[in-house]
Amino acid sequence: GSAVALNGEGSGGKGSPFPNYGATGLMNLGNSCYINSALQCMVYLPMLRSYILSGQYLSNLNSENPLGTGGKILLEFAELTKQMWAGKYANKAPQRFRGALSKARNKYATTEQQDAQEFLADMLDALHEDSNKVKKKPMVPPLDDDWVEKTALHRVGLEAWRRYLRRDRSVIASTIMGQTLNRVTCPVCHHTSTSFDPFSMLSVPVPAFEKMMVRCKILRRATSLNCPRALCIQSLVRPKQDLDTFSKSDLESDIDMDLDADPDAAPPSAILEQYIVEVSRLSEIGVLKASLAEMCGISAGALLLCEAETTPTPSEGAAFIRQNPFVTYIPVNEARPCAELSQLGNEGAEGSQGDDPDGMVIELMAFELTLKEWPSVQVFAQDLINGSFSTKSLNGMDLEDARFLLEKQLYGHRKECRRFDLRPERIINMMSKCLWPRTTADFRRGLRIEYLGDRNQKLPGTVIDVLVNEDNPDKTKVLVHFDHLASKWAEKFTLDDFLQKKIAPLYTKVTPRAIPIEGTLYHRHSGHYFGNTSFLHFHNEWSMARAGAHIMAQAARFLHEDQSTSGGHWIATCQRALGKAIDIILDIDKAYVDRVLRDCDDKFVYKKPNDQIKKSTYDASSLNDLLEKKNDRNLYLFTLCN
User: Fold this and answer.
1) Per-residue pLDDT averaged across 368-381, rounded?
2) What's the DSSP call for residue 441?
3) How many angstroms separate the CA atoms of 280 and 534, rounded?
4) I want to staple 339 with a disulfide (CB 3.0 to 4.6 A). Which of 107, 110, 281, 346 is the partner?
């Protein structure tokens, strides 16, 4: 930045407190702080300052050099240096120098902010050309490669510098400039070319300290291990079907293994944990994340690293809202260096300053992905990639058929939503086929489809409304909303579009999205947000019921039971009610899927054409009534706890 006036006087103010040390400030002339900073550095270069104050520059002034400024920059810089070291002024407005600079270099004529390093490089170049003793530059041939290879390196450097001085000989070259050694090797012929290049400035990193400490809190996903009361695994285990299609013993018993094995399982009481990691300031944030993942046992791909942003707390509202300020979290860019974390504005946070005055502790927050794939599905997918299955081991069954039957067996399992989360892509495809309309009377809301339009368009979507034509039922249409597009792009389709295969069952040609949907969870009371936000993740093809159960399961993390307080009993009651509500929702969702896929037990069913699959006529309205009836009691308990 610009130097401030030392005694408060304006331009030309008298009385420098240190007359023999060039203690003269430069006044800001409209965003000229970058110029003032560079000039203050230059006038304190001892040999350059002596060259100016002794008047020697006058004998070397090169006003005819077309690469310079006609000597104007050198003259104005010399005059300014003399005034700053005269000991007469506490501050000075470099107006004459700024005027000469604006005429010589147009980009510095405006009041816009510029780069100080770029200005310094331009100044050194201008002073070099204005004081260049070589009036007419001769042609200097480059060094011969054969001679360079046979000659000692220090002699090559001396010869390169001697040749440079034949064209460029000034006070800048003598006191500021140097040479860098460059070697380039051809990867094909392995020939190495060696050269010395002049420089007047080098950029080097100057970190305040090499290492930095990062304190990171981790919010884990809710499971039956860390929320045992709300997410305990009830004894409502449904009979397990036999997958006799698989002859591999490890895959046949895989589901039983899932019930006890979870390599990334958190400790029983772990919901919110805190870790302190020491990292290099120059390493990427991704390295910090990898170190954190190794310490906490959560894979780096399942961690979302964020920085905090606190919102001012409203003066009105309940006391607990004022005591719990609203904090949002913004994911950090893992490609950034860790040194940039010190610029997040949390250095002044409580506990951020360590005992070491040269160090600091940076506060971050990490969220575990709230989804975890079944190990059985992961094993199956890896075997598909490795080609471990053979036609004989599958008893002639197609791989997609095998994957569908595996998903069908796991759907609604007692550990679903509590330990693992299934991606039911093939189940949704089969349900779309089973519910596929043959007549307009078969149209129903919620049907998942894909649009196969012109120009090779393949868009997944959902039927959100049935537009019944009472005068002519054959002209009844459906309104389809396409995934990841705004509602204004929704389109209407007729039965002909279905029959002509312009509309097809979901995942006929569309590739399922592997990236889950991410949502942000907020806490709000009486119109005010409070507390810390968190993130939730959903598989793209979950039903609303399954997504609702997932939200309720992850909400269990915020129901902390404390028997020492009067509210501990009600919190425990709310935890049990929450778990029961999840059970009811998953039961109803499982029952609906089972009813629709009742005739899909054939092990070769998945690859059958749509018109060969028996259509389901099941009406889910009765299940909605059953869901509402069963949850009445739980809603009452939630009201009491609130």
Assistant:
1) 80
2) G
3) 28
4) 281
For strands 91-92 and 25-26, give the pairing.
parallel
Supply the pTM of this predicted model: 0.62
305 in Cβ contact with 331 (< 8 Å): yes
Q: Is residue 72 within a helix (H) or strand (E), and if so which, with residue range?
A: helix 72-84
* Residue of 91, 74, 81 whose CA lies nearest to 46: 81
Return the bridge partners of 536, or none. Answer: 519
How many Å apart are CA 613 and CA 436, to the nearest integer? 9
Task: Determine the average pLDDT of the residues in 346-360.
Answer: 44
**Residue 445: exposure state from Cβ atoms within 10 A (0-12, 13-18, ≥19):** exposed
Contact 523, 530 (CB under 8 A): yes
Residue 32's pLDDT band (cuts 50, 70, 90): confident
Q: Is the pLDDT assigned to residue 342 strictly greater than 60?
A: yes
Higher confidence at residue 346 or residue 206? 206
Three-state DSSP state, 238: coil
Which residues are bridge partners to 285 per DSSP?
A: none
Number of residues written out for the chain: 642
For residue 476, is pLDDT > 80?
A: yes
Instruction: Quickly count helices (H) and strands (E) in the chain.
Output: 20, 16
507 closest CA partner among 444, 447, 460: 460
d(CA 88, CA 368): 65
Q: Give the pLDDT band (50/70/90) at residue 170.
A: very high
Which two structure tokens, joined as six digits, stand for 350? 């409580």
Nearest to 440 by CA among 470, 400, 418: 470
- Angle at the Cα of 495 from the Cα atoms of 492 and 499, rounded to 5 degrees: 125
HSE, CB side, 13 Å, CA atoms: give it for residue 556: 35
Show the beta-strand stretches assigned E in 206-349: 211-219, 272-280, 303-310, 327-331
DSSP 89: B
Question: What is the Cα–Cα distance from 465 to 452, expressed in whole angstroms?
Answer: 20
The secondary structure of residue 29, as a DSSP letter, is S
Most confident among 226-235, 324-333, 339-348 (mean pLDDT): 324-333
pLDDT of residue 537: 95
**Distance, CA of 508 to CA of 505 (rounded, Å):** 6
The CA distance from 213 to 469, in Å, is 67
How sure is the predictor about 158, in pLDDT bands with cuts at 50, 70 and 90?
very high
Residue 78 near residue 86, CB atoms below 8 Å: no
Q: Yes or no: say if 198 and 176 are a contact pair by the CB < 8 Å rule.
A: no
First to last CA, the chain: 56
Q: Is 641 exposed, middle or buried (CB count within 10 Å of its CB: 0-12, 13-18, 19+)?
A: middle
Rounded percentage of the chain residues whose pLDDT exceeds 90: 30
Residue type, 180: T
Distance (Å) of CA 423 to CA 408, 432, 540, 598: 11, 16, 8, 20
- Model pLDDT for residues 520-544, shown as the tens digit of each residue: 988 887 778 888 889 999 999 998 8
Among residues 427, 410, 389, 416, the alpha carbon closest in space to that of 243 is found at 410
